[in-house]
Design brief:
The structure holds 2 protein chains of 2 kinds. By secondary structure, chain A is mostly helical. Chain A is built from 11 helices and no strands. Chain B is globular and about 50 Å long. The chains are: A mainly alpha, B mainly alpha. The complex binds zinc ion (ZN) (2 copies).
């Protein structure tokens, strides 16, 4: 702390602008040259960086549904299903599901599709669908995998569970519990995952 | 949102409602106040869209938001407010409580209550930058101060915040 206060304010301030990518032309040179020879400023820089990171780690809360129309976001539901949401987000989705029949129905379809997809044998996709570089690694970005999963809903869900809509009746709440348990189970196995917002590769599933 | 299109009121609510809510919540530490502000801002946006001319939409929106916030602060001076954050407390009944979860909850509570101790001028700029995600120029536009002042307020605000936080980083 003392280090930060010992510094001339203008250099100090440049460090903040540097962190935010808000330096004016010419200032970058000044900062980098100064940082090269001043251990106080290097320390101060790290302190500012940590403080900024802490601020930016504050969860984005969801406004009440009654105020802000939401998008019934499918990707969010997938993340929820996969236990990939940080705890605060998870609670919001969970609460939303209690109230929103549309999203509950979507969740069930996604779940059925996911189960179906995972039960499929691991065949290689046709060559022409796979870019050369990816053919080797079999590693798609998570979002792409999810989009593919959603796209497969109609076909696979129809195949396995039959095309039907899910009524919003009693069994739903039981199923919500099972989703919750999945989240809990995952949390107890991977204590870190609740804290850090989902950063994951497509291949992390068991 | 592109600058040369005039969004509908619903677009604004859908695209910015959550940000406005978080802006207000981080400034006040109170969910009800945050909800009130979202309502008020959307009301003003609805009225204002009629006379809105395409330009910097973000600047326009956040100027409205900020003015609505300042009006609510003036009003609130007449009634007692709770200085403590009433949220970020996650109900842990249905899930296990690994230390990390508790630590992260505690951390965001600490940050929130430290934020509330900053002078409003600093708090506002820090929240617009770190919670809402505006650039210095957009903040300058919204708050109606020079960019250099934005920079110094963000810097001093974060630095002060650092001093208020007790956790060892
Ligand atoms: Zn220095
Ligand atoms: Zn919904």
């Amino acid at each position: 702390m003392a280090t930060m206060n010992d510094m001339p304010d203008h250099i100090d301030e440049l460090l903040t602008a540097y962190l935010d990518g808000e330096l004016r032309p010419g200032e970058l040179q000044l900062v980098t040259v100064h940082l090269d020879g001043c251990s106080n400023c290097i320390l101060a820089f790290h302190e500012l960086k940590e403080t900024r990171a802490a601020l930016r780690s504050l969860p984005m809360l969801r406004a009440p549904e009654s105020l802000v129309p939401h998008g019934h976001d499918e990707i969010q539901l997938s993340a929820y299903l996969d236990g990939e949401l940080p705890t605060t987000e998870y609670r919001l989705v969970f609460d939303h599901l209690q109230e929103c029949a549309d999203c509950r129905a979507n969740l069930h379809e996604l779940d059925a599709a996911r189960t179906a997809i995972r039960s499929l044998p691991g065949l290689d996709p046709p060559e022409f669908l796979m870019p050369a570089s990816r053919r080797v690694e079999h590693k798609w970005p998570a979002v792409q995998v999810r989009v593919a999963a959603v796209a497969a809903v109609a076909a696979v869900a129809a195949l396995v569970v039959g095309v039907r809509s899910f009524p919003n009746t009693a069994p739903v709440s039981i199923d919500l519990d099972s989703f919750a348990n999945r989240h809990v189970a995952r949390a107890s196995v991977e204590p870190g995952f609740q804290v850090i917002p989902a950063v994951h590769s497509g291949g992390s599933h068991p | 949102m592109s600058d040369d299109l005039i969004p509908t009121w619903e677009d604004v609510a859908r695209s910015y409602g959550r940000k406005i809510y978080n802006f207000a919540y981080r400034l006040t530490g109170n969910r009800d106040d945050a909800s009130d502000l979202v309502q008020e801002v959307l009301l003003r946006v609805r009225k204002g869209l009629a006379s809105y001319t395409p330009g910097s939409f973000e600047g326009w929106l956040w100027r409205i938001t900020r003015n609505a916030f300042l009006d609510s602060v003036r009003k609130a001076k007449r009634r007692p407010t709770s200085p403590l954050p009433d949220d970020d407390r996650i109900s842990l009944v249905s899930s296990p409580s690994p230390d990390e979860v508790l630590a992260s909850v505690r951390l965001s509570e600490d940050i929130q209550s430290a934020l509330l101790k900053l002078p409003l001028d600093f708090r506002e700029c820090v929240v617009l930058c770190d919670v809402v995600g505006l650039s210095y120029e957009e903040i300058a536009n919204a708050v109606d101060i020079p960019v250099g002042t934005v920079r110094s307020r963000i810097h001093r605000g974060r630095k002060m915040l650092r001093g208020l936080l007790t956790w060892p980083l």
